[in-house]
Amino acid sequence: MRLNRLLFFCLIAITVAPPLLAQSPSDVKVNQLKPPTTSQADADTTPALVRWMFYKSDRNIQVVVPVVAADHNSGLTTGIMPIWVTQKKNSDDIKSIQAPSMTYNQYFGWEATYRYYYFPTSNASFTAIGTAGKYENEALLEYKDTHIKNTNADVDFRLHKNVDASGRFFGIGAASAL
User: Fold this and answer.
1) Are 67 and 101 contacting, i.e. CB atoms less than 8 angstroms apart?
2) What's the total number of domains in the chain?
3) What pLDDT, on a 0 to 100 scale, did the predictor assign at position 44?
4) Distance of CA 41 to the CA centre of its chain
5) Are 164 and 141 contained in the same domain?
6) Which DSSP symbol is given to 43?
7) Residue 150 near residue 174, CB atoms below 8 Å
8) CB 83 within 8 A of CB 97
9) Please, is 57 exposed, middle or buried when counting C-beta atoms within 10 Å of its C-beta (0-12, 13-18, 19+)?
10) Residue 13: predicted pLDDT
11) 3-class secondary-structure state, position 91
C-alpha cells in the first residue's frame, strides 16, 4: 500500500512540478510579464510529459490521464486512461468521446473499461460502457433525447448490468446496532 501511495505522489510531482520549476521568481523581470511576442510563443517550453499527455490535431484532441481512486472499501486503484475527443465537421460541438482505461487494484486485480459517448445532435446522446475484470463487470447502454423530432417530448432509455465486488453495508435503519 505504501508503494502505491509513493507512486501516486511521484506521479503528481512529475506532472505538476516542471511548469512550476521552469523559472525561479528571481529570473522573472518586469518586462517579461508583458504578453509574449510571436517568436516567444513559438518556442515550446511545455514539459515533455505534458506534451505527451495532450495532443491536438485539426478536429481531434487526445488526452492521456492517470487514474487514481481511493476508497475505504476497495483500497487504492491506479491506472491509465487515454481519451479521444472528436469534433463535428464545420462546428465546435463534440461529436464523440472514447475513453478506454486499464486499472489495477490490489484486491480486484486488473480491470479493462471502454467508454464511448456519441452526440448525434445537441439534444441527444448515446453512451456505451463495458468493464471486464476478474471480480467486477459492467455493461451500460443509454440513449437520451430531450427534444424528439423538435417537440417537447423526451426519451431516456437505459440498460445497465453491474457486478460490484466491493461490498457495502450501512445497517438496517437508523436504530441499527451495526
Assistant:
1) yes
2) 2
3) 63
4) 29
5) yes
6) S
7) no
8) yes
9) exposed
10) 46
11) coil
pLDDT at 117: 97
**CA gyration radius, the chain:** 22
124 shares a domain with 88: yes
Domain co-membership, 38 together with 64: no
Residue 92, pLDDT score: 83
Looking at residue 148, its pLDDT comes to 83
Domain end, chosen from 9, 29, 47, is at 47
CB of 148 within 8 A of CB of 155? yes
If asked whether residues 79 and 39 sit together in one domain, one would say no
Residue 107, C-beta contacts closer than 8 angstroms, at least 6 positions apart: 74, 75, 165, 166
Task: Kindly state whether residues 63 and 29 are assigned to the same domain.
Answer: no
Alpha-carbon gap, residue 112 to 106, rounded angstroms: 15
Q: Which domain holds residue 21?
A: 1-47
Place of cell 452526440: 119
Selection from 139, 143, 141, 144 nearest residue 162 by Cα? 139
Q: Mean pLDDT per segment of 10 residues, for the chain of length 178 residues?
A: 46 45 41 41 64 79 91 88 92 91 93 95 93 92 89 91 79 69
Is 92 found in the same domain as 62?
yes
Q: Which residues contact 1 (CB under 8 A, 6 or more apart)?
A: 75, 76, 106
145 part of a folded domain: yes
pLDDT at 83: 94
